[in-house]
Write a structure and sequence with these properties.
Shape: globular
Largest sheet: 8 strands, mixed, barrel
Radius of gyration: 21 Å
Distance between the termini: 25 Å
CATH topology of the largest domain: Diaminopimelate Epimerase, Chain A, domain 1
Number of strands: 17
CATH architecture of the largest domain: Roll
Strand content: 25-35%
Number of helices: 8
CATH class of the largest domain: Alpha Beta
Strand order of the largest sheet: 2-3-4-5-7-8-9-17
Oligomer: single chain
Number of domains: 2
CATH superfamily of the largest domain: Diaminopimelate Epimerase, Chain A, domain 1
Helix content: 10-25%
Structural class: alpha+beta
Order of helices and strands: HEEEHEEEHHEEEEEEHHEEHHEEE
Length: 398
């Protein structure tokens, strides 16, 4: 892998207009079980408020249907990525993840998304931020939301007949035989190794200082929870403590008004305990119901993001839930069937199937997680320009 020259990496000077709208270069990708538009940082306004205005206009928020933009009317398809050259000598790329909500004008860049992370290196090659020089391209990506660093590898074989679309002579291979639950068919593997995920948003892996806390909230409790952050702040609750099996469908849980009210009450209390302050308007912590696995896995989950039950589970939520399974005394460990050893595979069951996370553990007791790795897939869906109203594009670009 090589870095492009300044001339090769430079975007077109100044915004182009079409029909009175501003045309912003955009690549639309699926990463894992999420999808959304990706942008080069240099193609967006430098001012954060101005950048957010462009993202909102591109997605069609706020509107429950996102009918006037690229959003899919669901938190899983209301996401965007912004990527630029690495800001530190030890990283190749900087990645800002933006979570938008269909009915809200808020753009949240405080948490990570491991699914969208899977599309970062493919995007970087497609957009000219990286030039592949081998059959495998590996890049270190700094997620600017939380300063987490991930090492990501993709396949970049030589093109049989290089053309303008693959000027380096190599292309991103999307076809393959890797299947992930929640995505139809198979695709090429994207390997992600996380280098340091503990305390991504909170003060540490166990932000309350305890592996288990007894909490109560208006109308619910007292009950035990595990507050944990190994890439994504989660509050882990035994589904049985809320009168549920934990094996209900996502649709049934989304229709369960009483449950969602109880989860939100608990989320507000636990947010304070985790040092996150008032989380009313924040997308974290994610509430995660756990129960014994039913299909040969390690643990079963139902994850809320934060008010809608996920159709599967987020990458970093899976890493964090898997981590909880190996912490003696946690709510998850009590229900999990975890193999022994220092290199274990934790199968996290979810509504669409399962998600395997490989954890490296210390040999001493109590066990500590030292590494985590997983496999996702990604695909480029569209490349071109997204048109946004002129009023949404203002201020100077980077």
């Amino acid at each position: 892998m090589t870095q492009p020259t300044a001339a090769e990496a430079a975007p077109d000077p100044g915004p182009r207009t079409r029909g009175g709208q501003v045309a912003v270069p955009c690549w639309f990708l699926r990463g894992g079980t999420s999808r959304g538009p990706f942008f080069r940082a240099a193609d967006l306004p430098a001012d954060r408020a101005a950048r957010d205005a462009v993202l909102l206009a591109a997605m069609g928020s706020p509107d429950p249907r996102q009918i006037d933009g690229l959003g899919g009317a669901n938190p899983l398809t209301s996401k965007a990525g912004v990527v630029g050259p690495g800001s530190r000598p030890d990283v190749d790329l900087d990645f800002w993840f933006a979570q938008l909500q269909p009915g809200s004008d808020l753009v949240d860049t405080t948490a990570n998304c491991g699914n969208m992370l899977a599309a970062v290196v493919p995007f970087a090659v497609e957009s000219g931020l990286l030039v592949p020089d081998g059959d495998t391209t590996t890049a270190r990506v700094l997620t600017r939301n939380t300063e987490l660093v991930a090492e990501i590898s993709i396949r970049t074989p030589p093109a049989e007949a290089p053309g303008d679309d693959v000027p380096s002579g190599r292309y991103v291979e999307y076809a393959g035989d890797t299947a992930i639950d929640g995505v139809p068919g198979t695709a090429a593997a994207v390997t992600i190794g996380f280098l340091d995920t503990a305390g991504s948003v909170c003060s540490g892996l166990l932000p309350t200082g305890n592996v288990r806390d007894r909490v109560e909230a208006p109308g619910v409790g007292p009950l035990d929870v595990t507050c944990i952050d190994n890439g994504q702040p989660l509050v882990i609750v035994d589904a049985a403590d809320l009168g549920r099996t934990g094996h209900e469908s996502a649709e049934a849980l989304n229709a369960d008004t009483e449950l969602k009210e109880h989860l939100e009450a608990l989320r507000l209390v636990c947010g304070e305990l985790m040092g996150l302050g008032d989380v009313t308007a924040k997308n974290y912590p994610k509430m995660t119901l756990v129960s014994p696995a039913a299909r040969g896995g390690t643990i079963n989950t139902r994850s809320f993001i934060p008010h809608v039950c996920h159709g599967s589970i987020g990458v970093l939520a899976a890493v964090t839930a898997a981590t909880a399974c190996v912490l003696d005394g946690s709510v998850a460990a009590e229900l999990a069937d975890v193999p022994s050893g220092t290199d274990v595979s934790v199968s996290v069951e979810h509504p669409a199937g399962e998600f395997t996370v490989r954890l490296g553990l210390s040999a001493d007791a109590p066990r500590r997680v030292t590494t985590s790795a997983l496999v996702r897939t990604a695909r480029l869906i569209m490349a071109g320009e997204v048109l946004v109203p002129r009023r949404a594009y203002r201020h100077q670009r980077l």
